[in-house]
Structure formats: structure tokens, C-alpha cells
Specification:
With about 270 residues, this protein is α/β, with parallel strands linked by helices. It has helices spanning about 10-25, 30-50, 55-70, 80-95, 110-120, 165-175, 190-195, 200-215, 220-230, 235-250, 255-260, and strands at about 75, 100, 135, 145-150, 160, 180, 195-200. The protein has a 5-stranded parallel β-sheet, with helices on both faces. A two-stranded antiparallel ribbon has the order 3-4. The radius of gyration is 18 Å and the shape is globular. The model has no long low-confidence stretch (mean pLDDT about 90). The protein binds adenosine-5'-triphosphate. Adenosine-5'-triphosphate binds near residues 41, 184, 185 and 202.
């Protein structure tokens, strides 16, 4: 059953995302556990103010520069990311010359195919990692996430991993790859282990990645290197954590809570 979300509902956008995930679940794209994982993300989004923060924007810029400079970039796609932002995955891949590869923790052939079909419907020309196509293995990894394409994630120098698990992020970094994560939880192992962590909702970060890629794609490699060198992931994560701390301090001041819910941040 599809519900009508009132436009003036204070949580309209959040409810809209939930509906997209439920639809994705019913279409066999999102795993059951994906719905729960989204809930963990929502909690952090609430704490961050449900807006892309200035430090997330910095991370997005560094991420785009890293993707544009990469020789073999790959965008790794799971069910939640596909359900929330399939068209932006395809746009970003085109803009940065990246391959698209399906990679699932709860892997079934049906779900792989459903995700591939959705990506193709919104314009993907080639989708790696489905069924026998994921014939290579990431060493040291026990989960189904270990299965990768030999011309995709296995040999990539940069992998964008929206909504990742910490184990695989760590394994990919150990293989010498640069890992760009999108994760609302700045405390997660993924966030802490990635080379660049975008602490933002994947549904907001992906369109911004596309927009920034459009702006930066004609820059020289030297300029892109400067953007990357200026970025410090540990410091950026610290800024996101401080932002949460400040918001919690504001929320703790008597009488401020309702104002903050209306979107007032100072
Ligand atoms: P880790 O293994 O990295 O410590 P985890 O066990 O919390 O992380 P999972 O349960 O596999 O990871 O995945 C959920 C993660 O994805 C959470 O960290 C959550 O904050 C994040 N997440 C969920 N939905 C979104 C979203 N829409 N945008 C960004 N991040 C999200």
C-alpha cells in the first residue's frame, strides 16, 4: 500500500525515503536487513540535522577529485543505494568514467539481477558483479561481499562504497585501494577505515557528487591533486562528531528542542 505523504509534514523527506526503500524491498532490490540498516542511518541523520554539513561538502569535493584522477574507478552498489539513488549512480559513473559493480552482503542471484535491471532502466550501459561475473575474490574476507569482478573492484584503484560494511572497507584499503565511503555514522568502522568518508545521507550526497563532478571534470590533474592534499579525513570526521556534540548541547538547553525541530540550527 502506497501512502500519501503530506508536503508540510516535518519529516516528509525522511518518510519519502522510507517509502522508496519499502518499494525497493517489495521489488526484491533491498534486503530485509537493509531496512534496519537504514534506521541506523536515520538516527544519525536526525543528530546531524538532516542536512548536508559543510564538512560533508568538503569530503564530497575531495571524493570527486579522487574519482576524476583515478585510473580504474569503480562504484560499488548495494540494494539500499540502488533503491534510493539509482539515476545518480549512473550519472556519476558517466561523469567520472567509473565502472558500476553490484556487491551485496545478502547476495542472491535474484537480487543481483533486480539491481542490475534497475540500473539499466535508468541508463547504465554495463553492470558488473552479477552471478558468475563476480568470479574473483577479495582475500581475507568471509562474507558474500568478497565476490568481485576481476576487471572491476579487484583491480580498481579507487572504489566508491556507499553504505558499506567495515570489514570490506578494511580489506579494500589493505589491498592498496583508495576507498570513498558514504556513511551517516561517523563512528562506524567503515567511516573510520575509509580513505575519504562522506558523513551524509546517500540520497543527498549522490546528487551533490554528480554536481561537483560536473564542476571539476575539466580541472587539471594538478588542481585535483591540490584538492585531495588539502583534505584530512580524520580531521573531517572529527568535525562531524563535533557538530553532533554541539547540536546535542543545543538540544539539551531547555525549551530549544521544538525550535530545532522546526529547522533552526543556531
Ligand atoms: P560498520 O561495519 O562499518 O561498523 P555497521 O555495522 O553499522 O557499520 P551496517 O549495519 O552494515 O554497518 O550498515 C549500516 C550503515 O549504513 C550504518 O553505519 C548507517 O549509518 C549507514 N546508513 C544507512 N542508511 C544510510 C543512508 N541513507 N545514507 C548514509 N548512510 C546510511
Amino acid at each position: 500500500m502506497k501512502i500519501e505523504i503530506p508536503k508540510d509534514h516535518p519529516r516528509a523527506e525522511s518518510l519519502r525515503l522510507r517509502e522508496k526503500l519499502i518499494e525497493g524491498f517489495e521489488a526484491g532490490i533491498v534486503a530485509r536487513a537493509g531496512l534496519i540498516a537504514h534506521g541506523r542511518g536515520e538516527a544519525f541523520d536526525y543528530l546531524l540535522g538532516e542536512k548536508t554539513t559543510p564538512c560533508a561538502k568538503e569530503a564530497i569535493k575531495a571524493a570527486v577529485a579522487t574519482l576524476l584522477i583515478a585510473k580504474r574507478p569503480v562504484i560499488s552498489v548495494n540494494g539500499n543505494t540502488a533503491a534510493l539513488t539509482a539515476n545518480h549512480i549512473v550519472a556519476l559513473a558517466e561523469m567520472t568514467n567509473a565502472k558500476i559493480e553490484v556487491n551485496l552482503f545478502y547476495r542472491t542471484a535474484e537480487r543481483e539481477e533486480a539491481i542490475k535491471k534497475l540500473l539499466e532502466k535508468v541508463g547504465a550501459k554495463k553492470v558488473l558483479g552479477v552471478r558468475k561475473d563476480a568470479s574473483a575474490c577479495i582475500p581475507e574476507l568471509g562474507s558474500e561481499r568478497r565476490r568481485v569482478n576481476p576487471q572491476g573492484i579487484l583491480v580498481a584503484d579507487v572504489v566508491l562504497v556507499p553504505l558499506e560494511d567495515g570489514d570490506r572497507t578494511e580489506a579494500l584499503v589493505k589491498m592498496g585501494k583508495k576507498v570513498i565511503a558514504i556513511d551517516l555514522n561517523p563512528f562506524s568502522r567503515t567511516a573510520q577505515k575509509a580513505t575519504i568518508t562522506i558523513v551524509d545521507n546517500v540520497s543527498r550526497a549522490m546528487p551533490l557528487l554528480v554536481q561537483v563532478a560536473r564542476e571539476l571534470r575539466n580541472e587539471t590533474p594538478e588542481k585535483l591533486q591540490q584538492v585531495i592534499q588539502k583534505f584530512d579525513n580524520a580531521q573531517n570526521l572529527g568535525e562531524s562528531i563535533n557538530l553532533i556534540k554541539e547540536r546535542l548541547s543545543q538540544l539539551a538547553v531547555k525549551g530549544r528542542f521544538l525550535d530545532l525541530q522546526k529547522g533552526e540550527t543556531k
